[in-house]
Each structure stands twice: as structure tokens, then as C-alpha cells.
Amino acid sequence: MANECLFSVNERTQFPLQVSFFDENSDPVTPTSATYRIDDEASKTAILPVTNLPSPASVVDLWITSDQNFIVKSRNKFEIRTVTVQYVYESENGPTPATAQYKYKVNNLYGVVDVPSPSLSPSSSPSPSV
Question: Where in the sequence is the domain holding 38, given as residue range(s)?
Fold first, then answer.
């Protein structure tokens, strides 16, 4: 794959990234194990540390969450995310490691801010105060 962005998404948007696994001959394989990580390219910020891919198949839809598509530096018009996949498959030479990389652009939208998750505090409980 060339070192270019596949597509762009708006910040705080969730989407499935289709990950495919290939051997040294570019034939599809089903890995015996696989991990992935997400990084912001410019700042080298780890968005998601190395994470196991639970059920590897020859093609997997990897869900990138809205929380993983936040803007690291608010002055950037966009940021490039890199998803790095490492996997092992069986070949005639035994277990064989391989890698793949996917890049996409996250658009910084004016007015989108980080909003904390709603929580239940004692003042917001449904029961009346005594």
C-alpha cells in the first residue's frame, strides 16, 4: 500500500476500517494472531496502544470509535491517523510475521468539543432529597 490516506472522516465519528491480511505472494491469509494500534502521525501520540484483534479472519472490520477520532491539537485543520497491524500466519516456513498500515485523515470541525460522559451525581439522582 502506498503511503497515502485512504479517506477522511470528521472528528468524533465512528467507522469500520476493513483490514485484509496477505502473505508474501499477496494471497489472502487468515492469521493465527493479530494486533493493531492507532497513532497520530504528526504528534506521535498513541491514540490506542497495541490491542489484540479478537477473531482474525482474512478480512476484518475493525471499528474505530468516535473517542479514538479526537483532535490532538485544536489548531490543526486535520490530523493523520495511522493504524498499524501486525500479524502472524502459517506458511510453508512455519509461523510468519507480517505487517500492514492504513492511514486516514481526521477533519477538525469548528464547534466540536470534548463533552464529558453523563454521570449520576447525588444531586441528579431520581429520588427526592430529605
Answer: 8-111
